[in-house]
Specification:
The N terminus is likely disordered. The chain is 6% helix and 47% strand. It is mainly β and 412 residues long.
Amino acid sequence: MNTTSLLSKKIFLFLIISIGIYTTVKAQSFEYKDSGTNFILFDLSIPVGQNDIAYAAGSKFTFDTEGVIIKTIDGGETWETIYPVFGTSVSFEKIEFITANKGFVAGYDLLMKTEDGGETWTNLTVGTDVYLYNNLSFFDENNGFVSAQLNDEPYYAIYLTADGGETWATADDVMEAGGIEVVYADKNTLFSVGADERIAKSIDGGNTWQQIYSGFIQNYFVGVYFRDRENGVVAGEDGLLMTTHDSGETWSEFSTGYHHFFGLNYVYDQLLAAGTDGDIYSSNDNGDNWNMLHSGLTFNQLYEIEFFDNGSGLICGSGGTMIKFTDVLTDTPKNQLNENKLRTFNNANTLTIHSENQTLETIEIYTISGRLLASFQNNSNTFSTDISGYAKGIYLVKINSNKQMSSFKMIK
């Protein structure tokens, strides 16, 4: 397909979809920032609780060439190259910061750690015969993994840590893992995607894997993101987006017929997908319906979406693309709290929820980026919990009562 036909197809899709969302989309803001590099920014990381500090990493070209790590301390407004300070480096694929200062970066035969916000880096030897460390993630400050492509059999490995990266152990059985992208759903549950439209699942922290879905041979799944153990989204070729709400037992599908959505995020009931030509799609109903949220200004590919604690966020991509967005998260549906006759109150120390006509059965508190912080079982129409230990910011609270779901944003 030539460039002209691709552009025509994109314009057609935009016209069709924009008609449907004209009356529902509020004034989102997407601002293109100068990242200070024209490298492909494959990944970015915003440490938990941050509104100012973020990191991104990437490569000059798609294959093993030169790499770069950049950092912002003003919420993505300006960026500085922090590695390499001089000379060149190998290409980077993934970056993950556990705190504002402690982080890891993975690339071609290179895994590095910093304890001082990227001022200095230490090379780590985790696996042997590694060609590429291609995935890296931490569920919390202790539990994380890195996966690697090896030069010889078995050609793929996953290494696990339970002490914040001090020591690593080789996972026992990963041959069913997808290998392209791996993510946490909760501390023990991970999902992976890869070639032949494979989806695999681990329920023991990434140590062993079982294939749970396969599609067309020689087609690829290129992205995966799980909000929690039950709810996730997978991206494939030709704009395919698949969502599950039962931990991968069943899937529903949507496709634009065009995009590759590498960048995925799932915040409560809202999904975001960023990909080809800088286009961004959104679903406000758990993936039942999708609309184009933003039509990209260039033909660059977007690769990662991350949220700050205040609800704004960043999207990175090829050509050094860095987008800062605001007002993307939708408000709680207006009728939910009213229908269940809920009253909510919180101060710096306590969250209280009261229902006039329902038993509050389950209450869950999420970060604005979708990470589950706490889950409570309840058997009365009033619920109260201590939130004094929570950092200042915006949280999402989900309430289940008599098979009805309600939600609201809590600001602390």
